[in-house]
């Protein structure tokens, strides 16, 4: 299983802090946002490589960071060739870029690089192995306002995903979807042809939505919380709380 980290955004909401520096490598205490995530994922036996997809502007910074890491699994840095927020490929196209350039033909754990997590991805991998389907994560979100700003799913008693909507005005459930996914090898052809068949390019949830409509997917309920770092305020809050 490949661990693919989507880290090609420009984090414009963090202003000067990320004008010339990638958000995933911002420090939280003695570690980085990305480092905290990889510390967990690197311990998963099924994972055999970390693939970090970034942009041309930040690729040298990631390459320098890589030289200081001592993970047990190799790290590959992918430069998607873009240099500005206006020319970015989008999360889905960045994933397809990595799949194409590296000829990926394995199960994939696909993660966003701007969250602090308080559970282990091992639980998610074990769930997917048990279901033998591609999977997404979910958590209960009581706030309608927050549900309107994220992906929302409907599931059955076995947590099979019946429906998914991105940013629905009238959410059909309280199951919100964070940006963490497992795509099984048997579904990779669907992933590869998703954009040409109408899948949105920008948000990683666009692909999950597309896949729910084209294959069987299950949802794993997070066993603990996460902290999404999406703005200056949330970054400084994370530093204060967890650093």
Protein architecture, described:
This protein has 243 residues and is α/β, with parallel strands linked by helices. 29% of the residues lie in helices and 25% in strands. The chain contains 8 helices and 14 strands. Strands 1, 4, 5, 6, 8, 9, 10, 11, 12 and 13 form a 10-stranded mixed beta sheet that branches. It is globular, with a radius of gyration of 17 Å. The mean pLDDT is 96.
Helix content range? 25-40%
Number of extended strands: 14
Query: Which structural class should the secondary elements be placed in?
Result: alpha/beta
How much of the sequence lies in strands comes to 25-35%
* Low-confidence sequence ranges: none
Summarize model confidence as the mean pLDDT. 96
How is the biggest beta sheet arranged?
Answer: 10 strands, mixed
Concise synopsis of the structure shown:
With 243 residues, this protein is α/β, with parallel strands linked by helices.
Q: Which tags fit this structure?
A:
single chain, 243 residues, alpha/beta, 10-stranded mixed β-sheet, two-stranded antiparallel ribbon, globular
Which secondary structure elements does this structure contain, and how are they paired or packed?
Layout: E1 2-6, E2 27-28, E3 31-32, H1 33-41, E4 49-54, H2 59-66, E5 75-79, H3 91-102, E6 108-112, E7 115-117, H4 121-131, E8 134-140, H5 144-147, E9 151-155, E10 161-166, E11 175-177, E12 180-183, H6 188-192, H7 204-214, E13 217-221, E14 226-228, H8 232-242
Parallel strand pairs: 1-4, 1-6, 4-5, 8-13
Antiparallel strand pairs: 2-3, 6-12, 7-14, 8-11, 8-12, 9-10, 9-11
